[in-house]
Amino acid sequence: MDTIVCTEKVTRTFKKTIALHDLDLSIAHGELFGLVGPDGAGKTTALRLMAAVMRPTSGRVRVAGFDTARESESIRAHVGYMPQRFSLYADLNVLENLNFFADIFGVSGADRQRRIVQLLEFANLARFVDRRAGQLSGGMQKKLALACTLIHAPAVLLLDEPTTGVDPVSRREFWDILTELHIAGTTIVVSTPYMDEAERCNRIGLLSRGQLIQCGTPSEIKAMVQGQVIELRPDPMFRAQELLAGRPDVMEVQVYGDLLHVFVDDARQRMPELKVVLEQGGVTINGIRAIQPRMEEAFISIVRKHGVER
């Protein structure tokens, strides 16, 4: 694997808090890599270390052939980093923001004009060049932030939950843009709380409590789920949970709104058995079926198992 981002036994502490512990990660040229984990898992810290915004307490991070601790200035020419709260200037219009970031990264002359035109078209912002950033919708602000991050044509793009807080249509449009960048060969490392976004990555790293607990393709991660899944819509919910909790033929129960996802060894065999148990316990079943484990089920199951084993 032609590695462009590499962390070796990286630990980062903040006083007595361990934000990351012994992170070993290799990301290949042109890969779209997703970092997934609950709040406080260490995703933001990992991206800041890769962006050379902070130094590891121990271990080493290398990006584009440079050591982030010793060669941080060299790295910044090759990396585009978009934090959760990207600092657009609300009083500047779209074009002025792009020119400002071009100044920061030393992009000038004909190269600057060419890139700005390309990015405006690429991000579908050409019609809004005179609109102030503060007057853009949330989705358009995210696209402008991405365009500013790309102004110096970085080889590695680091994005920290870039679509949090935007509407579903804008989220899809943003990911369409990322897909085009990926196809063009840009290496992208993105943290996301959305499992459908994680599915679009080549590989996923699952973080929990500062540790990388699993890493693999979406298919490999979903294959780690133990057992099969029965989805049912019970009424009342709490009674169904009581009846299913602790049963030897039930491995795990997850709640999704008015649905229960029940993990068993054999869905076809257990479905009629569980139906009888619930109905005899006074639970009405408004729907029951066997389903394939999704990324969300896999993520919750793996994180829960990791918590139990610690």
Rounded to the nearest angstrom, the radius of gyration is 23 Å
Number of domains: 2
Uncertain stretches:
none
Question: In angstroms, what separates the terminal alpha carbons?
Answer: 32 Å
SSE pattern, N- to C-terminal: EEEHEEHEHHHEHEHEEHEHEEHEH
Class derived from helix and strand content: alpha/beta
Largest sheet: 6 strands, mixed
Percentage of residues in strands: 25-35%
Helix segment count?
Answer: 11
CATH class of the largest domain: Alpha Beta
Write down the overall mean pLDDT. Answer: 92
- Helical percent range? 25-40%
- CATH homology superfamily of the largest domain: P-loop containing nucleotide triphosphate hydrolases
Order of strands across the main sheet = 6-7-8-3-9-10
Assembly state: single chain
C-alpha geometry: elongated
Assign the CATH architecture of the largest domain: 3-Layer(aba) Sandwich
Q: In the CATH scheme, what's the topology name of the largest domain?
A: Rossmann fold
Please give the number of β-strands.
14
